[in-house]
Amino acid sequence: MELKSFLLAVFVIYSSQIQRSSAVTDVFVKRGDDVLLEVMDDVTKKFDLFVWTFDTSNSTNLVRYSPGGKPTVSEGYTGRVEFSVENYSVKLKNLQDDDSGVYTAQVTGDKEQTIAKYMVTVQGPVSPVDLNPDSVSISSDSCNLTVTCSTEDSHISSTFTCDTKTCSQEGGDQSKVTNSGASLRVHLLNGTIICHHSNQVSWTQKNMTQIQDLCPLHAGLSDGVSICLVKTVVFSVGLIIMVSVVISVHLMEKIRKLK
């Protein structure tokens, strides 16, 4: 019984080490930027060889290091890779699309062990977006506005219903994944229609704030009060001018008769 318990404990520890060593950390990098890949596990000082590899169709050794020696950077990566002999991290510079892939840190001693693994994805900045009205339908008490949020390779449409005070988006926020793998989203925030385009490294957006120009009903209660006030003032001023003219004419006629 004790032997079974011991073997079970060894199996659990061994399994947890394998899972930890094989875990892949996702890292997203903007094209042209640098990235630092660190070794999170404690590395024993008694290893014979430390290697960072880039796993593509053909696995490439980026850096090889033996204690007491100097790190060796593979040909083709000179000037683009920096290796720290203190913490065994590697810095990759000026990453391009072809640099996307799995980067693995391994040590060799009594046994070979994987101590870090990263899935690096290089992405370019997202393209600008356009936000344009497609149609406007106005009734006595509401206005339906349909807009299209578009990029160079994708688009999404959404309809907004407005009354004299508020606007709402039919179906709520609308979003989709573009052909380039980015996220395209159109939504309403504080009375403003927003077209948002983003990936893990960049974003851009365009706002449509002139809803009231497209939907006159959505002038808002305060605007309605202001318009009413302006009309009242204009009417009052006009009335005063008319009354003043009539009184002036009457006085001039009376003065002429007295003469």
Describe it for me?
With 259 residues, the chain is an alpha+beta fold. The protein has three helices and 17 strands. The chain has helices spanning 2-22, 211-214, 221-258, and strands spanning 25-30, 35-37, 49-55, 60-65, 72-73, 81-83, 90-92, 101-108, 112-123, 130-138, 143-150, 155-162, 167-169, 174-177, 183-189, 192-198, 203-208. A six-stranded mixed sheet has the order 1-9-8-3-4-5. A four-stranded antiparallel sheet has the order 10-11-12-13, with no helix packed on it. The chain is elongated, with a radius of gyration of 36 Å.
Record the SSE blueprint.
Blueprint: H1 2-22, E1 25-30, E2 35-37, E3 49-55, E4 60-65, E5 72-73, E6 81-83, E7 90-92, E8 101-108, E9 112-123, E10 130-138, E11 143-150, E12 155-162, E13 167-169, E14 174-177, E15 183-189, E16 192-198, E17 203-208, H2 211-214, H3 221-258
Parallel strand pairs: 1-9
Antiparallel strand pairs: 2-7, 3-4, 3-8, 4-5, 6-7, 8-9, 10-11, 11-12, 12-13, 14-15, 15-16, 16-17
Major sheet, described briefly?
Answer: 6 strands, mixed
Helix content: 10-25%
Q: Strand-and-helix sequence, N→C? A: HEEEEEEEEEEEEEEEEEHH
User: How many helix segments?
Assistant: 3
Q: Residue ranges: pLDDT <50 for 5 or more in a row?
A: 1-21, 219-230
Query: What oligomeric assembly is this protein in?
Result: single chain
What does the overall shape look like?
Answer: elongated
Cα radius of gyration in angstroms: 36 Å
Strand order of the largest sheet: 1-9-8-3-4-5
